[in-house]
Design goal:
Elements lengths: L6 H4 L20 E5 L3 H12 L3 E5 L5 H9 L7 E5 L5 H4 L4 E4 L4 H14 L3 E3 L12 E5 L2 E5 L6 H14 L4 H18 L4 H16 L8 H14 L5 E6 L10 H9 L2 E4 L5 H4 L7 E4 L11 H13 L3 E6 L9 H10 L4 E4 L4 H9 L11 E6 L13 H4 L4 E6 L5 H10 L7 E6 L7 E6 L3 H8 L5 E5 L4 H9 L3 H7 L1
Parallel strand pairs: 1-2, 1-4, 2-3, 4-5, 8-11, 8-12, 9-10, 9-11, 13-14
Antiparallel strand pairs: 6-7, 14-17, 15-16, 15-17
Helix pairs in contact: 2-3, 7-9, 8-9, 16-17
Amino acid sequence: MNLPQQQRNEAPARMTALAKLPVFWALEGKRAIVAGGSDAAAWKAELLAACGAEVHVYAEELSETFERLVERDAEHPQGRFVRHFDRWNSEELEGAALAVADCDEEGEAEAFFNAACTAGVPVNVIDKPAFCQFQFGSIVNRSPVVVSISTDGAAPILAQAIRRRIETLLPASLKNWAELAQSLRERVNERLAPGPQRRAFWERFVDRVFISSDAPEEGAGGVLLSDAERLAGAPATGRVTLVGAGPGDAELLTLKAVRALQAADVILFDDLVSDEVLELARREAKRMLVGKRGGRVSCRQEDINDMMVKFAKAGKRVVRLKAGDPMIFGRAGEEIACLERQGIPVDVVPGITSASAMASRLGVSLTHRDHAQGVRFVTGHSRKGTLPDNLDWNGLADPRTTTIYYMAGRTAGEIATKLVKAGMAPAMPAVIVSAVSRPNEKRWTGSLRDMTAAMAEIGVDEPVLIGIGEVFGRAILAVNTDPLSEQLAASA
């Protein structure tokens, strides 16, 4: 195979620096210390007891909230509260799983911290980061699924806002599905060996979880175990999913695309796929750059086809990650045909195509009914790197149709010349956008006659889109109305 250098695969990003290590701690049947009787201390005590800890509370007086909590007792069958009416002492810290205190005075906080450290007990003094060896995060509770969010104490309100967002994304039924998974895990492991078959089972399980917000029906466990039996008797087979990565902004990915990335064993990605998108992939997945860029060393399409076939026949779940939408100038048809000839299952997850991203960035409707009755996507270069010689320039010069030219940076001048020759007005509004939706995005707005000079300004180092049509008059008007808009767009 004639593969290009794979710089982005040699050392894929694994984990950037962390302010704190997120750890989920088992506390069932263990002793925890809480010093103080405030509402803040009550909340920490409730968390510890909810994990099954025996919580020893040291306070001469408790707040009304804390009193009600102790009277009600813990939700967890092993959790309980033990009330002490005197001040904490260092002897009681010995052998505890952890210790929490709410201290008004700095001296008392320091004393509690030092005593816990001497006893070898992890310690947290509420709202005093200097005396904390660990921190509590904002919690989304779908136990046994637990999500915790931390901002390292920098912005607790932000953590709460993040928690609210996650709460809306995770259905309440997730708790029931997680409990079902917990009950099935050992039996599934007995039936399926580690590797592709076991992963396939759990991927199907996850698909069922998120298809609806309903809890599992009665007898769902038996159905799932029957599914595991069928998988155990079937040969390991892989599949390929063509996934649209969009124009670059990771927030434009579909939920289905993210799920495909999280399930992949192997990811064959284009050079134009952003690092932010790749960061959403399963960390254990093998990532291989198979980029194809005009005017640069590229991986042959035949080699990409061979790699997809090889990995899929080895039982891998392969994601072919393409910039934009796979079905628009992505050579998806050739790849699908190749896989089907080999009997390999293939499916497609569409992505936001660059034209749609450009239109949204400019605030322009490509089919504004006052200006256009249709929209066309046209390739700006052929396999030879020049304009295709079979384009219908008379049709493309129709002023009632919006046209977007992909990969047209090097042919912009020729496009303008041919359109004018075919009868399009030289003053027809035009836009040029490179690296659409990315931090280094550049924009130009003007008329058809000025496109050649504009390209000298924009450059061809990044993917270029050209839009031509009356609908782009609005973008030009916006620039003329606000002279700062181009500057802001360049730095957006």
